[in-house]
Amino acid sequence: MKSSNEKIVAIQNLDLANIAWKLQQSTSDGAQAWSEKQTEKAVEEYRKFLMLCIIYPEKSIVPTVEADEVWHMHILDTVKYHEDCNSIFGKYIHHIPAYQEVFENEYSETQILYAEAFKVDLSGTYMRCSRCKRDGECHRN
Fold it and tell me: Tens digit of pLDDT for each residue in 3-28?
């Protein structure tokens, strides 16, 4: 079994080039392709989401909108996603869609854990919640 540090390194080295490429393509439903800069930022946020899942395995981590979009693309590459999950986590990581706003507390906690894990001050900034698609306003007191 890999240590947490080994899992973090594996996440940092995860090949997401094809997923990034896919995000930069226009879709048949008319959705606008992502810019290279937007894609790089989203992939980095996805990596951080995966790292949070390793650092805080007992917590329900809620990804940002951008990280969630990368996650969707990763999942659609079913073989790669399955292999990556097994290699890093030792199991398949299921995606639980948001059907209601019961995840507000988890999102607020994710922001705190994100700030703690990555040593960033999130005051004056925001992370868009993937559950309610808002800028986190619904999660502030």
Answer: 999 999 999 999 999 999 999 987 77
pTM of the model: 0.83
Number of residues written out for the chain: 141
Query: 72-94 burial, b if ≥16 CB within 10 A, otherwise e?
Result: ebbbeeeebbeebbeebbeeebe
- State the Cα torsion 41-63-7-5 to the nearest 10°: 80
Q: Tell me the CA distances in angstroms from 116 to 9, 53, 63, 120, one per residue in order.
A: 19, 14, 16, 7
Beta pairing partners, 16: none
Per-residue pLDDT of 50-75, as tens digits, reads: 999 999 999 988 888 888 899 999 99
Distance CA 41, CA 67 (A): 9
For 30, counting Cβ atoms within 10 Å of its Cβ (0-12 exposed, 13-18 middle, 19+ buried), the class is: exposed
